[in-house]
Amino acid sequence: MNTALVPVKEPVERPAPAVKANRVVAPPAAAPAEKLCFRTLLAVPLAAALGIGLHLAVRKNDPEPDTTSWIIFLGSILGLALVMGVVQFFSCSLRRWMAHMCPIIAAALGLFCVWEIITSGFRLLPLPYFPSPASVLRNLILDWELLVKSTWYSLLLLISGYIVGAFVGIVTGICIGWFKQARYWGMPLLKVVGPIPATAWIPLAMVISPKPMFSAVGLVALAVWFPVTMLTMSGIANTRASYLDVARTLGAKPSFLIFRVAIPAAMPNIFIGLFMGLGTSFLTLIVAETVGVKFGLGWYVSWAQGWAEYAKVFAALVIMAAFFSTIMTLLFKIRDRVLVWQKGTIKW
Amino acid sequence: MVAPANALNEGSSLRVVEVSKHFAAADESDGGTHALDRVSLAIAAGGLVSLVGPSGCGKSTLLRLIAGLDAPAAGELWVGHEPITAPSAERGLVFQDPNLFPWLTVRHNIEAGLVARGVLHEKRHEVEEFMRLVGLETFAKAYPHHLSGGMAQRVALARALINHPKVLLLDEPLGALDAFTRMKMQDEVLRLWEARGTTMLLVTHDIDEAIYMSDRIVIMTPRPGRIERTIEINLDRPRQRNSPEFLRLRSEILELLHFAGETTREPIAT
């Protein structure tokens, strides 16, 4: 009931700032942190209100019996945006954050509206396969326990596989990049075995490994190992000769040359390998879970698909998006810390 | 040599005896390059000698041999009474490109030599001293890409000097700097040289720089790399860049290198 109030409140507030908007919009680039223009300020509440209105208009078309959660979701965004719109007058950092984030959040809300129109609105897409956003959110909430369990399980598999693969990859990459003998014997193996997609090993992995858990970890590790090894190797092998020369004339022993010169010099390359490995590890994880392991997000997707519960499939996709992008962001943060010395990454 | 009193005498004599070096050519028929052909050179402890000559005359090759980074095809190299067989902290090397480790701050770059030799704990106090010596104490935490060319080269000098090398090899260290910074840095290098008494061997393309800085100028010719002539510079320090003796030496060396220009020989007929 209270949700019905929200859209009513909105038009009352709107006209007054809208008039001012024309004046304030003029110098936006000059002083971005000084004052938020009203277009930015109102984008999120407007988009949220639009979403609620749209949903109320088309909810009878939605086969989902109860969509209150969607209204609460949009309503809380609306409320939060209004509160923050007031608080930002007193907080400079919040204002800066909002100036940056409001347009993109509003765009995301707009996309939800489009999704709603396509699914519940005009029923442009065949139904069990393309549920409305409201239905996805409801299933996300209903099934949260299993989703959390699956995510936790996927996280364990991913982290253990990734760490093993990255560690082994960095070590083999350094050996192949630095030692001539290791390059002679290791390079052909790397070139022949490396490019085989890790997922192609699944049948073999199932037979060899005593537990499906181990095979999944091994496959993820293998998927990470190849790009990390390749990039680490090239980074080490391409260390500028003059850095090594300088280090030698400073009295460096071989250990100093490897650990204090070649490896730091290869760090940017190693991180490229780690990012590539992260991408392939996501793929391998989901495929491995789909075929072998009986838990995890990949399993959840194929299980939900088996029951034709496509809203749950989408719910799992939403979780995956959040899960994978969080891990990606984490790796970016680590990179920024390790590579502070790189030009433009940080200003001191 | 002419080291002032109360200065340190860290330098050691340097002897290069009949040293040759070839480089294999990519093309078999070419027979390779004769980079150095029986080059001999002796520098007394604490001397400052310049190597001058057109590119390809083997100046940098000779420096790499003295640094121990490459081995000669024939001949011997000695520092004091020890033969040169491998790179060592006793022979510092500074390139035209400062080659600072970009992943280390100024302070850690200067420390690198101590870390490499495993003596950081005992000699940590010297880091401050060397940062002061090159006037970079305020930039201790800066990364190399924030430094100007002159500052970066000063860090490179401090990094090489912190090991107290007996010989400092300078491979066109000021070549990439603009004219004003270069003249300032020349004085700076001279100041370090006088203060520490380090033996220095300077490769340069700049004849003024060679005359301004060195006790002796060694002129080399290419293909094969040989020492053409040696010129003693007996001017008083600090030297005047525009004194008549300075200019006379300058034109003499230019003649020798055939860069004096046509006009000095046959004036253009009008």
Do you know the CATH topology of chain B?
Rossmann fold
Biggest interface and residues each = A-B, 23 and 33 residues
Mind describing the biggest β-sheet of chain B?
6 strands, mixed
- Strand residue content of chain B: 15-25%
Overall outline of chain A:
flat
- Could you describe the largest sheet of chain A, including whether it forms a barrel? none
Shape of chain B: globular
Average pLDDT rating of chain A: 84
Put the structure in a nutshell.
The complex is a heterodimer of chains A (348) and B (270). Chain A is mainly α and 348 residues long.
Overview of this protein structure:
The complex is a heterodimer of chains A (348) and B (270). Chain A is mostly helical. Chain A has two domains: 2-142, no CATH class; 144-338, MetI-like fold. Chain A contains 14 helices and no strands. Chain A has helices at residues 2-13, 15-25, 38-58, 68-87, 92-121, 133-142, 144-178, 180-193, 202-208, 212-237, 241-249, 254-291, 296-306, 310-338. In chain A, helix 6 (133-142) crosses helix 14 (310-338), helix 7 (144-178) crosses helix 13 and helix 9 crosses helix 10 (212-237). Chain B is globular. In chain B, strands 6-7-8-3-9-10 form a six-stranded mixed beta sheet, sandwiched between helices. Chain B is built from seven helices and ten strands. Chain B has helices at 59-67, 106-117, 120-133, 149-161, 179-196, 207-213, 244-256, and strands at residues 14-23, 33-43, 48-52, 74-79, 82-83, 91-94, 167-171, 199-204, 216-221, 226-232. Chain B is of the alpha/beta class. In chain B, helix 2 (106-117) runs parallel beside helix 4. Chain B has one domain (14-259): Rossmann fold, CATH 3.40.50.300.
